[in-house]
Amino acid sequence: MLANAGVEALALLLSCDDAEVLEPACAALATLTTISGANCERLLECGGTESLVRLCLSPFSVEFVELQCFAAEAVANSTRVDSIMHAIAVRDAGLSNLVLCCASTNLLVRRHAAVAICNVARAEDIRVLLGDAGAVEALFGVAQTDDVQGVSYALWAIANLCWSVENQNRMGRFAAQLGDLC
Asked: In this structure, which long-range contacts are made by residues 154-160, counting pairs with CB atoms below 8 Å and at least 24 apart in sequence?
């Protein structure tokens, strides 16, 4: 119960415009969402998931790379809970933020973005929207790096996205690369 109250208090801090407050709040939320599904649900209930998605590409997060990394990690962690509501929250906050994070110069941000896309792509209605936002192309970008873990996450996300016919058509031009990755 105390952790749930902590999640809510930390989520309130996400509306702050001070990176020195935002970074530790995002770090704490990344940790709390790692250890408990209940914390993920609480984060969703208090609007924290949407705030974190928006923070992934805020001017603060571009300047403060650790802030971006912690925000993306917390999104990836919180979306692991199998709930359509998490996918809807990410959609409402901006799927394009996660897609654009796949092009980050920060290895961890790319990994967390791929995991978050993988998680929300479990929702049928979100798959096409992710494709429309450029997720297929962005994930193939992640998959073409030397980061084995990032490649793995990107391939899992691609696997979830390919349940949509529209995304299968998008993936057609990457067929040779996909064969090389497998």
From this structure: 154/102, 154/114, 155/181, 155/182, 156/114, 156/115, 156/118, 157/114, 157/115, 157/117, 157/118, 157/121, 160/118, 160/121, 160/122, 160/127
